[in-house]
From TrEMBL:
It comes from Paenibacillus sediminis. It catalyses: 3',5'-cyclic UMP + H2O = UMP + H(+); 3',5'-cyclic CMP + H2O = CMP + H(+). Transmembrane segments: none annotated. Residues 119-313 form the Metallo-beta-lactamase domain. SUPFAM superfamilies: Metallo-hydrolase/oxidoreductase. This is L-ascorbate metabolism protein UlaG (Beta-lactamase superfamily). It comes from the Bacteria. Counteracts the endogenous Pycsar antiviral defense system. Phosphodiesterase that enables metal-dependent hydrolysis of host cyclic nucleotide Pycsar defense signals such as cCMP and cUMP. InterPro entries: Metallo-B-lactamas, NAPE-PLD, RibonucZ/Hydroxyglut_hydro.
Amino acid sequence: MLVLISVIVGVIIAAVLFMKLYPTFGQKPSKEKVKTYNKLENFANGKFVNQITTSSMDNNFSTTLSLLKEYIKGNPNSKPHGSIPIERPGTAFHKDDKTKITWFGHSALLLEMEGKILLLDPMLGKSPSPFPFVGSGRYSKVLPIEIEELPLIDAVIYSHDHYDHLDYESVLKLKDKVNQFIVPLGVGSHLERWGIESTRIKECNWWDEFEFSGLTFVSTPARHFSGRSLLDRNSTLWCSWVIIGQHTKIYYSADSGYGPHFKQIGQKYGPFDMTLMECGQYDKRWANIHMFPEQTVQAHLDVKGKVMIPVHWAAFTLSFHDWTDPIERVLKAAKERGVAISTPKIGEKVIVGSSEYPTSTWWRLAD
C-alpha cells in the first residue's frame, strides 16, 4: 500500500511539474497582476467571469457518455474528402487607404487597414493542441502565405488563449517581426514566458480603448472561457475586438456564445463596415460558449454589421458536425434575414467597401 501511494504521489508531482515546465502551456498571470484584477467587475473568486451566467459544458455522466459515443462513432463528413482551394495572394503589400482582409482558415486573419498590417488570432500551426503531433490537423496542407513570407507586422491581436487561437509555435516565428501585441488581460503572461518583452504587449479589459499607429482598438466582451492546462481555467480574459480607422470599422467576434453583449457593442460602436463572425465548432452541449450559425447572423445584426465574413471553420475539426454545416446554415439564415455575406476562399483577398465581394461556394468542390 505504501508503495502504491508513493507511486501515485510521484505521478501527481510529475504531472504538476510537467504542467509548469512545458512552455506550450504558457504562464499564469503573476500575483501582482491578480491583485489588480480583484477590483474588476468581471473577476470573482480568482477567476474571470462572463457578463451572464455561463457554463462551458455540462460535465454530468450522461453528457460525458454521449460525447464518448459520438467520438467512437466518428463522422466521415467532419473533414473535407478532397483538397481545399487555396489562393496565394502574393507577398507584395501596397500600403494605401483601403482595408483588405485575407482569411487563413479558422479564425486567423490578416488585416491591411489604412496602411497598417495586422494579424488577428494568427494560429498558423498544423494542429490546435499542446502537442502538435496529436489532434485534428489542418485541412489545407499549406497556408496562403507562410510566416517567413510576411512583412513587418504592425500589431498582432489575440482574443483569448485557447490553442486554436494562440499558438506557441506561431508566436515563436512571429515575435521578431511584430511591433505590438494587443491582448486581453492576463494573456501577456504567456507571451512574456515565450520571450516577448512586456514593453511590446498591451493588455486590455473589456471596453478599454487603445490607440496605436493611427488605429483605435477596443477590447469588447465575449461569452466564452480561457485556459491552456488543467491549472489555469479562466485565469486570463477573453474578448472580441472593435478596430476603428479613419475610413473603416471592423468587428471581430472571436469565440462567443450568443448574449446581450452584441447589442451593447452595436449600440456603442456600430455600424460596422465588415464583421468577422464565428459560425463553427458548435454543439448543443456547449451552446453557451459557441454560437449556432443562425445566432451568428443575429449577432451580426445586433452589432449593426453591413457585410459579414463567417470564420472559425474550414481549418480544423473541433466539433461533431459536418465540416460544411456551419457555412451552409449561415448562408441559409443570412438569405432569410437579408444579410449580406461574403465567402472568400482561404487566401482570397477581400477589399472592404468594394462594389462586389467574393461569394463563391468553393467548399462544395472540396467535399
